[in-house]
Amino acid sequence: MNTLGMVIAANVFATIAILCGLKLFDLGSSLADPIRKYGPILGTVFAVVAIFNFLLKDTLDLTDGNYTLWMVVVSMIGFAFYDFMVNFAKRGLLEPKSKESRKRGRVSKMSVTAVALLDILSGAIFGAAAGISFTLNFGTGIVTLCSLILLQIVMKVAVIRRYQDARFTRKENITVLVLSLATSPIVASLVNLWARDRYRHVGIFMALAIGYLAYLGIYQVVLIVKKLQNR
Question: I want to staple 206 with a disulfide (CB 3.0 to 4.6 A). Which of 59, 104, 126, 161 is the partner?
C-alpha cells in the first residue's frame, strides 16, 4: 500500500511539472516546440501503456472483465459528453454579452468566474483519476501521472490561448489556471485516502479512470490526424 505522503508528493510534483511546461510556452522558449510537437504523441503512448500494462490489470483484480469493459465504454462516452457540454458552455460565456463588455471586447467578471468553476471541476476530475490510480500500485500511479502531465500541458496551452482571445486579463488567466491546477493534487489526495479501505468500490472508479485516460488519448489522436490532413 502506498503511503499518503508519497501520493501527495507525486501529485504536487505533477502540478509543478505542468506549470513549468506552461511557463516554457509563456517565455517563448525553444523547448516549447518539442512539447507542442511530441507532447500529445508521448502523452497518448503513456496513456496506452498506463491502461493496458497497469490500470487494466489492477482493475481486473477487483472487478469482472465484462463489467469493466462496459464501465470503460460508458465512462468514455460520459467524458466525451461532459467535454462537449463544457465547451458549449464556454462558447456562450466567452462571448461578450453586455454593451460595456462588447465595447471593451472582453467578457464580464461573472463569466470569468463561471469559466473558473468549470475549470476547477475539470481539475477535480483530473485529480480523481490520478488519485485512484495510486490505490493498488505506486507504479500505476506514476505512469498514469506521466500521461496526464503531458496531455494536460497541451490542453492547458490551448485553453490559455482561448482565454487570451476572449480578452481575459493576464491576472484572470493566471488565476483560473492556478485554481484548476491546485484542485488536482487536493482531490487526488482525498480520493486516494478515501479509497484505501474501500476496495469493493475501487474497481469501479479505476474503470472510470481508464475511460477518462482513454478518452483523452483518443481525443489527441483525432487532433493529430486533423493536423496531418490540413498540411
Answer: 59
Compute the distance between CA of residue 173 and CA of residue 164 in angstroms, rounded to an integer.
8
Q: How far apart are the first and last CA of the chain?
A: 48
User: What is the rounded distance in angstroms from the CA atom of residue 101 to the CA atom of residue 36?
Assistant: 33
Residue with cell 503513456: 46
Characterise 168 by phi-psi region: left (phi > 0), alpha (psi -120 to 50), beta (else): beta
How deeply is 219 buried, as exposed, middle or buried, from its count of CB atoms within 10 A (0-12, 13-18, 19+)?
A: middle
Contact between 10 and 145 under an 8 Å Cβ cutoff? The reply is: yes
For residues 216 and 208, give the distance between their C-alpha atoms in angstroms, rounded to a whole number: 12
Query: Identity (one letter) of the amino acid at 137?
Result: N
Helix (H) or strand (E) holding 205: helix 199-230
Percent of the chain at pLDDT exceeding 90: 74
Q: Does 88 score more than 90 pLDDT?
A: yes
CB atoms within 10 A of CB 16: 13
Dump pLDDT digits (tens) for 55-75.
999 899 888 888 899 999 999
Residue 43 C-alpha cell reads as 502523452
- Whole-number Å distance between alpha carbons of 218 and 224: 10
Distance CA 151, CA 217 (A): 8
- Element (DSSP H or E) covering residue 17: helix 4-27
